[in-house]
Amino acid sequence: MSVESKAPESQFAYVVVAARRARQLMAGAPPLIDNPHTQKATRVATEELDQNVLEYEVPEFPGEEEDKEGKRRK
First and final CA of the chain: distance in angstroms? Predict the structure, then answer.
């Protein structure tokens, strides 16, 4: 697994990471950014992703390889 700090490349991954972070915020985790524009957990999570302050792990699945261009293949 690799730890990433930039926004995910696919929209699906972006939504999954933002949703997980929003759940953490709703459970009482403090925001990672100073002065978020809103108090809504989902918006704070997307701000954190957009500002590249949120770290997440990308799991590597067995049988997945990367081609010459760095894209994953199954």
Answer: 16
- In angstroms, the CA 8 to CA 46 distance is 11
Residue count of the chain: 74
> pLDDT band at residue 27, thresholds of 50, 70 and 90?
very high
Query: Measured between alpha carbons, how far is 48 from 68 in angstroms, rounded to an integer?
Result: 31
How high is the pLDDT of residue 67?
58
Is 59:43 a contact under the CB 8 Å cutoff?
no
- Taking the model in full, what pTM does it have? 0.69
Per-residue pLDDT for 68 more than 80?
Answer: no
Helix (H, G, I), strand (E, B) or coil at 56: strand
- From residue 52, how far is each of 8, 13, 46, 47, 49 by CA, in Å? 10, 15, 10, 9, 5
